[in-house]
Amino acid sequence: MLELRNLSVTLDNGKEPVEVLHDISLSLKKNKIYVMTGPNGGGKSSIAKAIMGIYPASKGQILLEGEDITSLEIYQRARLGIGYAFQQPPRFKGLQVRDFLTLAGGPDTRVNPCNLLLDVGLCAQDYLDREMDSGFSGGELKRVEIASILARRLKVAVFDEPEAGIDLWSFQKLTETFRDLHQRQETTLVIISHQERILRLADEVILVSGGRIANITNCEEILGDISRTDSDCLCRQECNRKIQINVECHR
Ligand SMILES: Nc1ncnc2c1ncn2[C@@H]1O[C@H](COP(=O)(O)OP(=O)(O)OP(=O)(O)O)[C@@H](O)[C@H]1O
Ligand SMILES: [Mg+2]
């Protein structure tokens, strides 16, 4: 359904071009849940942005249901049914939550902003008329952004660290919402996450590191790998050893 073929992305950070994604190949199937995980700076958000068309491909192709969408703009991909909930959502000053969610739903008149807010654990009475300005907390903004993606009937929905800033009480509701969405609609879900409870939803776990796909595996394997890995970085091990032999740590 969604295929990345040898995709590379090069960005210009103002000084020199940097290749942030190298030769990514992925094949995502209809109505499956993929959880993308891996170290910070590994390239997860960049893959999401490349799928959405925010970062252009410098090499390779992106295909949606066999159609080459590599050269399509963001709005064209959105029309074809791709949605992306940002890791750090933008604030829309002057826009009320009700209008934002109605706009997100597009021509689909069945969209009910109250139900969408309930799906992300927000009380409609408290939030429908609020403006999405600087008075919105990070967690509130994140949840309304997720609700805006739920408003659309998508072929592919990408959620970038949906758990970030979400309190423990609402987090459970959010995982149920993802499960529901998966059961109700034929949406392919790509959830970027570091959370075990989200990893447990995955049909496949995609490990991204160093701008590459390091592995495609499952939740049990990845959690097993993490527990076997010595979590101390090499520097810490060195420092600890020095402390044990009474040599002052250099940090
Ligand atoms: N617009 C940009 N310009 C320059 N470099 C960028 C840009 N966006 C991302 N990068 C670099 O690409 C690499 C991958 O970043 P990305 O945001 O995709 O990582 P990530 O896996 O999502 O990390 P995190 O877990 O911290 O969210 C990083 O080294 C980052 O600094
Ligand atoms: Mg990221």
The description of the largest β-sheet is:
6 strands, mixed
CATH superfamily: P-loop containing nucleotide triphosphate hydrolases
Heteromolecules bound: adenosine-5'-triphosphate, magnesium ion
User: Quick one: CATH class?
Assistant: Alpha Beta
Account of the 3D structure:
This protein has helices spanning 44-52, 74-80, 97-105, 113-119, 124-127, 138-150, 168-184, 196-199, 219-228, 234-244, and strands spanning 2-12, 17-28, 33-37, 59-64, 67-68, 82-85, 92-96, 131-132, 156-160, 188-192, 204-209, 212-217. With 251 residues, the protein is α/β, with parallel strands linked by helices. It has a single domain (2-217), classed as P-loop containing nucleotide triphosphate hydrolases (Rossmann fold, 3-Layer(aba) Sandwich). The strands form 3 sheets. Strands 6-9-10-3-11-12 form a 6-stranded mixed sheet, sandwiched between helices. A 4-stranded antiparallel sheet has the order 2-1-4-5, covered by helices on one side. Strands 7-8 form a two-stranded antiparallel sheet. Strand 9 (156-160), helix 7 and strand 10 form a beta-alpha-beta unit. Helix 3 packs parallel to helix 6 (138-150) and helix 4 crosses helix 6. The longest helix has 17 residues, at 168-184. The model is unreliable at 242-251 (pLDDT under 50). Magnesium ion binds at residues 44-45, 87, 160.
